[in-house]
Amino acid sequence: MNKHVIVLIGVSIFAITLAVVIGSRLTGQVLVIALGIALGIVIGIPVGALTMVVGLRSRSQSTGVESGATTIVLTDQQTDLLIRALERPQTSPDSFTLPPRQDRSFSVVGGADLSDTFDDAQ
Q1: Which residues have CB under 8 Å from 22's CB, separation 6+?
Q2: Are 104 and 96 spatial neighbours (Cβ–Cβ below 8 Å)?
Q3: Considering only CA atoms, which of 3, 6, 25 is closest in space to residue 14?
Q4: How far apart are CA 54 and CA 60, in angstroms?
Q5: What is the reported pLDDT for 88?
Q6: 98-122: per-residue pLDDT in tens?
Q7: Left (φ > 0), alpha (ψ -120 to 50) or beta: where does 52 sit?
């Protein structure tokens, strides 16, 4: 026999045995969840591969400028305004100073001292 057929039969027997053992030990709800995960993986891989193939095919067929592409066209007046805005002197980082650091002060809620609260007899 061909080695591929032997490997395929061996893997199939292992999978069926594993499914029977796991199925006999799991409860109904957990078994349904495991079945859903298995079917999601089995269906998800071919669908993802098909999506990749379709995406690569559509990308390879498109050449040049795409029909949905947008370009920005500026008038002469808008171009002049943009150049003037870019030529203005920029603000230096030194002009943004940090506020002075303030020390934190912590207090207990209500202003009580912690040692006073554990000494009270109830």
Answers
A1: 34
A2: no
A3: 6
A4: 10
A5: 76
A6: 666 777 766 666 666 656 555 555 5
A7: alpha
Q: Which two tokens stand for residue 94?
A: 């030194």
Residues 6+ apart with CB under 8 A from 26: 34
Q: Tens of pLDDT along 60-92?
A: 766 555 566 677 788 888 888 888 878 877 766
Do the beta carbons of residue 108 and residue 114 sit within 8 Å?
A: yes
Q: Which residues of 13-37 are buried (b: 16+ CB within 10 A; e: fewer)?
A: eeeeeeeeeeeeeeeeeeeeeeeee
C-alpha 25/C-alpha 31 separation (Å) is 9
- What token pair was written down for 36? 């859903």
Burial, 76: exposed, middle or buried (Cβ in 10 Å; 0-12, 13-18, 19+)?
exposed
Closest CA to 55 of 47, 44, 65: 47
